[in-house]
Design brief:
heterodimer, A: alpha/beta, Fumarate Reductase Iron-sulfur Protein, Chain B, domain 2, Rossmann fold, 3 domains, four-stranded parallel sheet, 7% strand, B: mainly alpha, binds iron/sulfur cluster
Chain lengths: 431, 206
């Protein structure tokens, strides 16, 4: 006797009802099972496990759709491989859609038909989320954000202490009492966000961005109420929870009456906010939204900051976060910045919108049950990094920083890992 | 008209009606409303999705699998050609003459490509495990259709077999995976729209 009761199943199947547009049925009716997407996916490349071929993940969702929504699937399911949504199917979905996909979207552009595989996998995650089957580890990260306002449950006092500490360092370094980190100040031009990993583990990256704002003479503030740029509900597939989290930043923007929201270096946070939150909330942004990478590139173009590339002599390479680059269109700005702040910049191969995921996306870093798999698939990124001969890996995403740090340790790469703000701060010529 | 031609006509009519139903549903549901739409035109990205993005230089599914990709292209060309020939044959006597031999040779070649794809599906375990009976059936029907078309061009007596094979194909077409012939266009449209809105496609020069 299965544990999936009809009411639970119906919650999962609801994703196929009342479709808002033709996007989903298009993807679910398109796969020809040619299998040519296999080598696009780091999971299959690294493990050779056939179950991890992108088409197999698409088919998990599409086969359920066929079973309940196509004539052939209803009349002769065996012929069209239509599957019931039962315990076995749901269990396989959890393992493959949560545990074997970083939602990097690399397979999309290379699919012979052009199926948006990432979207299908996210739909599958929404089905599982509707049925209460989000892995507990991932759900606890979402819950932390919902309850405490940030995904690491950092208490407000601890957060303020960290920022004050960084501010003191900044004042000392710049020898200017005006070099402050403004908190909760209304009416500023920019509200800057953070990935909670920054105050928790990498506070120097906050100081780096503060230094850049200082050099550019920016009018900016951080919020102590809502600063978290991440949105793990985007990965869990729970659209209601994703909307609640996204809405907080919208609210904070209006509370502080700032004109522009600058998103910290976080691939999925940027994608979730920049591209998904207006659709979660059914409204267009009433304010400007930019990633910090674009913002820094703008400073450089406007001549508001100047960099000295001779300070960084080591070979530097760049890891492109999937959600910022392939799924977010920010491809050239980080290169434009890096070419001005280091002497020797080398690309990985492949790179840009074709880059391989580091293996930490899709919520993988939050799901400790898949740690072994996550480190194994990262072997591909380790090889890419090694081949560049670089001593510094720059990546504009704190999740990628975390994953590449683990790769660095596990695969003994012996590289330094920095964000764009950190390397820019290193090369910054102060006014 | 012989009975087998009527049979083919009925199957074609069925195929067209069901495909039109799919098409109307796609049109009725329409494009996604995107509140995050940036101020860029998505037209060039959609055009790129159907052109540059499909090129074997850009698609890993093509350049890592050139023999399969080439066989697939020839197989599809053979299908389109066979459909055009079927449309002619339904309303006029079977074509004979100097053109029929080269066309038949091409269709034998494209049919052979179909067989090679089928063999690959059978022997490669990752593909076999991905496949459903529909995948084999669809391949076999399209391959037979091309081979029967070729045969009918050089051997008019094969006409009844040719029309019966065609009829079976068009009954199965909108039911099984062959309906990707319609959804392919929708998929490329959506992908172009997605990457266009996000400024990924068409690729910008560095
Ligand atoms: S390449 Fe695309 S059409 Fe082919 S099996 Fe993979 S997902 Fe399906
Ligand atoms: S989105 Fe990335 S990880 Fe997921 S199936 Fe596609 S290539 Fe693999």
């Amino acid at each position: 006797m299965g544990t999936l009761t009809d009411p639970i199943k119906n919650k999962g199947l609801a994703v196929f009802e009342d479709l808002p547009d033709s996007r989903l049925i298009t993807q679910l009716n398109s796969c020809v099972h040619c299998g040519l997407c296999a080598e696009t996916c780091i999971y299959y490349l690294a493990t050779g496990d056939e179950r991890m071929i992108p088409a197999r993940k698409v088919d998990l969702v599409a086969s359920i759709y066929r079973r309940y929504h196509t004539v052939a699937g209803k009349l002769f399911p065996a012929i069209v491989k239509a599957r019931d949504l039962d315990d076995d199917t749901a269990g396989e979905m959890v393992d493959l859609l949560y545990g074997a996909c970083t939602m990097c979207g690399r397979c999309n552009a290379h699919c012979s038909i052009g199926i948006d595989i990432g979207f299908v996998i996210r739909t599958g995650r929404t089905m599982l989320s509707n049925m209460g089957m989000v892995p507990a580890t991932l759900q606890s990260t979402v819950d932390a954000a919902l309850v405490s306002g940030n995904n690491m449950s950092i208490p407000k006092e601890e957060f303020i202490d960290t920022l004050k500490w960084m501010e003191e360092e900044l004042v000392d370094e710049l020898n200017d009492p005006q070099a402050v980190i403004p908190l909760d100040q209304p009416g500023k031009r920019v509200l800057y966000t953070l990935n909670p990993r920054e105050p928790k583990f990498f506070p120097l990256s906050i100081a780096a961005m503060a230094k850049i704002f200082y050099a550019a003479g920016e009018s900016w503030t951080l919020s102590t109420r809502m600063y978290d740029v991440t949105n793990y509900a985007y990965f869990s597939g729970n659209i209601n929870e994703a909307s609640v989290i996204a809405n907080r930043l919208w609210d904070e923007m209006s509370a502080l009456k700032t004109q522009a929201l600058v998103l910290a270096e976080c691939g999925h946070g940027s994608a979730a906010f920049r591209w998904e939150s207006p659709n979660y909330l059914h409204q267009k942004f009433p304010f400007e939204v930019m990633t910090s990478v674009e913002w820094i590139a703008r400073y450089l173009r406007q001549g508001k900051i100047k960099l000295d590339p001779s300070r960084i002599k080591e070979t530097v390479t760049l890891h492109d976060p999937c959600n910022l680059v392939r799924n977010g269109g920010i491809i050239h700005e980080q290169r434009y910045i890096l070419r001005q702040c280091v002497e020797n910049f080398v690309e990985m191969n492949p790179c840009g919108s074709d880059n391989y995921c580091c293996g930490g996306g899709g919520g993988q870093l939050a799901m400790s049950e898949y740690n072994e798999r996550r480190i194994k698939i990262a072997g591909i990124k380790a090889d890419q990094i090694r081949k560049t001969g670089a001593k510094i890996v720059v990546t504009p995403c704190h999740n990628c920083v975390d994953q590449i740090s683990q790769i660095n340790f596990h695969y003994k790469l012996n590289v330094q890992i920095k964000t764009i703000a950190e390397i820019v701060a290193d090369a910054l010529i102060l006014p | 008209m012989a009975w087998y031609q009527y049979l083919t006509l009925i199957s074609l009519l069925f195929c067209c009606i069901v495909c039109l139903m799919h098409l109307f549903r796609l049109i009725r549901l329409g494009s996604p409303v995107d509140y995050a739409t940036p101020g860029v035109k998505t037209g060039p990205a959609i055009a790129y999705s159907f052109t540059g993005a499909m090129s074997p230089v850009k698609k890993e599914s093509a350049y890592l699998h050139l023999p399969t990709y080439t066989a697939g292209i020839l197989f599809h060309l053979g299908s389109f050609l066979s459909m055009i020939i079927l449309a002619v044959h339904l309303f006029s006597p079977i074509i004979t003459g100097f053109l029929s031999w080269p066309v038949a040779v091409f269709l034998f070649a494209s049919g052979t490509c179909g067989i090679s794809i089928l063999v690959k599906r059978i022997i490669k375990s990752s593909l076999r495990n991905l496949s459903s009976p529909d995948d084999y059936l669809s391949n076999i029907l399209v391959t037979l259709f091309q081979l029967a078309t070729a045969l009918s061009l050089i051997l008019p007596a094969a006409g009844p077999v040719y029309f019966v094979v065609s009829a079976i194909l068009f009954f199965w077409f909108p039911v099984g995976k062959l309906r990707h012939a319609l959804y392919f266009f929708a998929a490329r449209y959506h992908l172009g729209l997605f990457y266009g809105r996000r400024g990924v496609w068409p690729p910008k020069p560095r």
